Amino acid sequence: LPETSRHSLAIIGAGPIGLEAAALALELGFDVHVFERGEVGAHALAWGHVRMFTPWRMNIGPASARLLSRHGWSAPDPAAHPTGAELAERLLSPLAATPR
Ligand SMILES: Cc1cc2nc3c(=O)[nH]c(=O)nc-3n(C[C@H](O)[C@H](O)[C@H](O)COP(=O)(O)OP(=O)(O)OC[C@H]3O[C@@H](n4cnc5c(N)ncnc54)[C@H](O)[C@@H]3O)c2cc1C
Q: How far is the CA of 69 from the centre of ligand 1 (A)?
């Protein structure tokens, strides 16, 4: 086992940054626990009707993409601009639903 498996990591918040950090920490072998006070992607859902100024290719962290690609995820069009709700539904919820 990697050295880091002996270390637990607590991440507060299942937003895009917390989940990317969790995905990378899993790769590094940490025992990861994400704590979310509301629902996954709560912040993005709060402005869910707003279309983002950044396209998908800027909204998906590399560790998130690697994790999701191992679970049959179909990546969105990199040039398209999601709404906040689409960010939560197409990226954050699938990340949180991965077995690990
Ligand atoms: C209208 C609007 C449009 C935006 N458009 C863009 C854009 O186009 N491109 C872009 O890059 N950024 C955009 N942003 C900014 C983007 O939303 C943030 O940079 C991003 O959400 C930050 O991610 P995060 O994971 O750090 O935090 P958040 O997304 O805020 O997630 C934090 C999470 O932590 C949870 N939480 C908070 N406190 C606790 C606690 N004490 N215990 C447990 N859980 C807790 C919350 O419920 C939430 O789920 C926009 C923001 C707004 C408001």
A: 23
C-alpha to C-alpha distance for 66 and 52, rounded to whole angstroms: 23
Rounded to two decimals, the pTM is 0.95
Task: Evaluate: CB of 38 within 6 angstroms of ligand 1.
Answer: yes
CA distance 100 to 86: 23
The answer to whether 63 and 27 are in contact (CB under 8 A) is yes
CA of 3 to the centre of ligand 1 (A): 31
Nearest-CA residue for ligand 1 atom 37 is 13
CA distance 61 to 67: 10
Q: How far is CA 59 from the centre of its chain?
A: 10
Q: For the chain, which ranges sit under pLDDT 70?
A: 1-2, 4
pLDDT in tens, 39-59: 999 999 999 999 999 999 999
Q: Is 14 in the pocket of ligand 1 (CB under 6 A)?
A: yes
